[in-house]
Write a structure and sequence with these properties.
Largest sheet of chain A: 5 strands, mixed
Number of helices of chain A: 12
Strand content of chain B: under 5%
Structural class of chain A: alpha/beta
CATH class of chain B: Mainly Alpha
Strand order of the largest sheet of chain A: 7-6-8-5-9
Helix content of chain B: over 70%
Shape of chain A: globular
Strand content of chain A: 5-15%
CATH superfamily of the largest domain in chain A: Periplasmic binding protein-like II
Order of helices and strands of chain B: HHHHHHHHHH
Oligomer: heterodimer
Distance between the termini of chain B: 38 Å
CATH class of the largest domain in chain A: Alpha Beta
Largest interface: A-B, 34 and 41 residues
Number of helices of chain B: 10
CATH topology of the largest domain in chain A: D-Maltodextrin-Binding Protein, domain 2
Amino acid sequence: MRTRTATGGIAAIAAITLAAVAACSSSASSSSSSSASASASSSNPLSSGGSSTSVVVGSANFPENELLATVYAQALQAKGVKVSTKLNIGAREVYYPQVEKGTISIIPEYNGTLLTVEVDKTSTAKTTAEVDAALAAKLPSTLQVLNSAPAQDSDSITVTQATANKYHLKSIADLKPYAANMALGAPPEFKTRSDGIAGLKATYGLTFKSFVPLDESGPLTLAALQSGKVQAADVFTTTPQIVTDKLVSLADPKFNFAAQNVIPLVYKPAMNATIINTLNAVDAKLTTEALLQMDNAVITEHASYSTVAAGFLQAEGLS
Amino acid sequence: MSFFSYAWDWVTTSANWQGSDSIPQQIIAHLGYTVLPLLIAALIGIPLGVAIGHTGRGAVLVVNLANAWRAIPTLGLLILLAVYLGFSILTWLIPLVVLAIPPIIINAYEGVAGVDPDVKDAAKGMGMTPWQQVTRVELPIALPLLLVGLRTATIFVVATATIAAYIGLGGLGRFIIDGLASNDYGPVAGGALLVVLLAVLVLALFAVLNRLVVPVGLRKQAELGRTE
């Protein structure tokens, strides 16, 4: 029939939507079941015996995480530990089970999301100390977190330098008298997230003039902020544009956004004192500012992970 | 739960039909994001397609377009424009117009170029000016194919206008994108179902249009002959 194309088009639309909904619901259920089956720890050929000081450092599939993994790997190599890396594995659903089983020994994580996504979905811990304690208490037996770094890659309310100067803004609390004239840009889920619109109102008493749903601290959000379409936006604290576009991330003294400190997630049986002390020493020197500068070098200036990592470790006397 | 039970539960919740960002409001916004690009694409595509079909010059453009247009990444274009043009009306208009023009131009060209050469000859022989040849003979004969082109373009734009929601605008895409971001499958399935229903409505509309606009004799001829 003549209408073959149109019917084909509609069938395609319906099929793709069906597949998308099926994929969404199946991935949602599989991530919760993988953490439930975690505690069955059997002997792992990769960590058998005490002779192996060889570890596998893995990373998620985004630049900052690959960078952090490279920093950890180089620091360990400098202390004589045998290291192999497995970068760019995938999202947490993919790599978390691997660390649980010991296929990966070390991976850079973020304490806040690790807690609420994999370990304890109902947790209300907000400060670094609370989140670290909740993790230590609730992680499965094969896993451990080491010391968290001061560096955080968390949501923030960010404004342009001009806006910050105009209203003398240093922290989110300073926005209170001006929010009613400002449009806020953030990912769509900000509307319903507990630390989103509702959280900002409850914690800081802010009510914005309007909410523009954009992307997660991506090109759309940054373009909207620069062009003045929004006056404040949710930008991750280690986004390179903060440096290149001179943006100002406002401080969050009341912890509306839970802490997201960089923290090494490790497979306990593969650890020894050297590894633990080395990684803790690295984290002690890792500040948000240092991480931001490294991200800028890697993402904006296209420097290699190993060069940037080596530079950091050398500057901090860790290599 | 199935796609349809999610969609049905959501569409039948009366709260979704009231207040700001309600279903009726987003449907109207969605129609706006559909009609304007289509009008512009038709204004550009039909004259161009007819001219190329009548004169035969520039046919190479149409052939290449026919092969390449489905590869156009509409969403990528949208985000690129958002970064370089900011959030103006052109940001969402241009990608949707670019999406809609090829089927209109291709079918306008095929419709006019495919007119029986004997008929064209007869028109010339009767002393008609080129303008009269086009408007009195070629265009009416090409009308069924032209409508097919318009219908294809409309359905593609209806389905793709969901991308306007990416840059913070409304339309049925708002439900799909917000739902996906919050892992709330009701609006995702419901929004998608509404888009499909709109597309089916477009099909019905064009069937009616076909009946009204195309002369009976030509309709029969077109049904027997063409494939797309």
